[in-house]
Amino acid sequence: MTARTGAEFLDRLSKARTHVEIQGESLIGGIPDHPAFKNVVRSYAALFDRQHAPEYRDVLTYPCGPDGDRAATSFLIPRTAEDLAKRGQACKLTADASFGMLGRTADYLNSALMALASAKTWFAQTDAGFARNIAAYYEKVRDEDLLCTHTLIPPQANRAQAASQQAGGALMAHITNEDDNGIVVRGARMLATIGPFADELLVFPSTVLRGAPEDKPYSFAFAIPTDAPGLRFIAREPFDYGRSHFDHPLGSRFDESDAVVVFDDVHVPYERCFALGDPEVCNGFYTKTDAINHMTHQVIARTTAKTEFMLGLTTLLTEGIGIGGFQHVQADLAEIIITLETLRALNRAAEADAATNDYQVMTPAWAPLNAARNLYPKLYQRFPEILRKLGASGLMAAPTEADADGPAAADIDMYLQGATLTGKERVRLFRLVWDACASAFAGRQALYEYYFFGDPVRMATAYQASYDKAPYADRVKAFLEAAD
Ligand SMILES: Cc1cc2nc3c(=O)[nH]c(=O)nc-3n(C[C@H](O)[C@H](O)[C@H](O)COP(=O)(O)OP(=O)(O)OC[C@H]3O[C@@H](n4cnc5c(N)ncnc54)[C@H](O)[C@@H]3O)c2cc1C
Fold it and tell me: Which residues contact residue 397 at a Cβ distance below 8 angstroms, ignoring those fewer than 6 apart?
């Protein structure tokens, strides 16, 4: 039982026989060396190594097990406020390594599994076996320090129809057969970020869509290895074009890959199932277990790291071309600062108001976290917009590293110099700004933040519906009636 190193992560991945379709190529394994994945996979490996760095080890891991072994802090079941704070610090330290650009770092779903396993009695309501399964699975993922991803939503064929009705029920992943050992699943789920190089795929219910009784065959939760027979991923076009860190500073490090998930009669053993044929259990999957609180606690650490990056980058941009003195530019910087301080305040409130839940888990308060997860999808969109506005033509006057070091070097040093930067320094900075606001990588980041927790429109609907507005309406009503 130990937190893995980067080498151990890569070694396991090199043995996996994951089926990935990418740009007309069918891969069965070989992921760590494929051009689309090799850089991001190494960024993930560095995160595993980080757990062992003397300066981070005490925050990123905790003693777990009889032999003095240590596990990743995201598996720690928080019993006290200090435990919870440590979890938050570990998430932030992990997010800082990629400025929050890696959205599916292991701590996200480790946090979910920690909470789900702690609430195992809730899973027992349909079958005691499910409680045992979720607890055993959490221990397996913790002890082997596996990297999980999840897939939640049905294909996007026709949103005017119930997902279970699309193509007569054939599209959405569903159970086609059950035998003595498990279930057989056929169909598809829309997306799994990092699917091609994760160790495990969690096929969980949606955090937003609610199942009805007729969704019974589509209501399940289970986990399978990403190289399970019959499972395949159809990856989108990579945004890591194999260029240098100078040219594509973010895309060449953090392009996580997103992939459609196809189940071609995948057999799932019962011990890997946590809920079967029970829309009610699936509807309460995250909320009744408080998994959503711990997932959002991780997310707020990541989005804080990302906002800090945007503030730092925008500051360098304004200094670099001498626009920091203009008031509207200062207003843009103030807007980023306000978002940052809002996230910090909401996180602090969530930790300060934490309470022990029915499963003896110290649980961050939901109200501030829920506000944060409804806010960020919209607030994030402003950052690339601000960078594009302030970067202006400089985003296009951004030749490559080969130009900065080649025959155009003298021109670049002369004509592309900034207020505080040499020509080459300015090009390097602007290429980073471009990768944060205008490249394909940047577009995907904006889309990712917008849809991170599901459709923000339907999230807002659920948010306001669950919020107790009556006391405020009553107060206004009393005021109106007093005036009469
Ligand atoms: C970069 C990226 C990575 C992702 N990674 C993952 C992942 O790892 N795992 C995973 O499970 N999912 C992932 N997703 C999917 C994500 O969960 C969904 O994007 C999100 O839930 C919204 O669903 P959808 O994309 O199918 O949009 P749709 O539901 O198809 O919505 C499309 C548009 O129609 C509107 N609309 C549709 N239906 C309704 C309705 N009933 N009422 C009102 N408006 C409606 C929406 O508001 C939206 O504007 C990822 C998405 C992106 C963009």
Answer: 416, 430
**398: helix, strand or coil:** coil
The structure tokens 């939901």 sit at 366
Residues with CB under 6 A from ligand 1: 149-153, 156, 159, 190-193, 258, 444, 447-448, 451, 454-455, 457-458
Q: Which residues pair with 192 in a beta bridge?
A: 259
Token pair for 52: 């062992």
Q: What is the mean pLDDT of each run of 10 residues along the chain (484 residues)?
A: 93 98 98 98 98 97 91 98 98 98 98 98 92 98 98 93 85 93 96 98 84 78 98 98 97 98 98 92 93 98 98 98 98 98 98 98 98 98 98 97 98 97 98 98 98 96 96 97 84
Helices (H), 221-326: 251-254, 279-283, 291-320
Beta bridge partners of 173: none
* Residue nearest (by alpha carbon) to ligand 1 atom 52: 448
Q: Where are the alpha helices (DSSP H) in 53-171?
A: 57-60, 81-96, 106-118, 120-123, 128-144
- Measured by CA distance, the residue closest to atom 39 of ligand 1 is 159
What spacing in Å lies between the alpha carbon of 394 and ligand 1's midpoint?
34
C-beta neighbour count of 333 within 10 angstroms: 16
234: β partners: 21, 260
Buried b (16+ CB within 10 A) or exposed e, 282-321: bbbbbebbbbbbbbbbbbbbbbbbbbbbbbebbebbbebb
Give 453 Cα–ligand 1 centroid separation in angstroms: 9
Residue with tokens 């701590």: 107
pTM: 0.97
Q: Is 31 helix (H, G, I), strand (E, B) or coil?
A: helix
